[in-house]
Fold this protein.
Amino acid sequence: MAQPINVQDAKTHLSALLARVAAGERIVLARHGKPIAQLVPLEPKPKRQLGFMQGHVDSSFFEPLPEEELNHWWA
């Protein structure tokens, strides 16, 4: 386990600690010498894959709406 960092020191040097975490390091935070928390890098979210669902959109979906239908939207 890495040397714990006091919470007060962590508050003072938070930006530097976050840079170390972003580089892959795990930081242990301690209060009065007792480990209480850990800063760890987040796992990157996987990219969303488009087109994973089966189906078909009928070409009529892209046709303009009839006047009667449009009038309901603007009423």
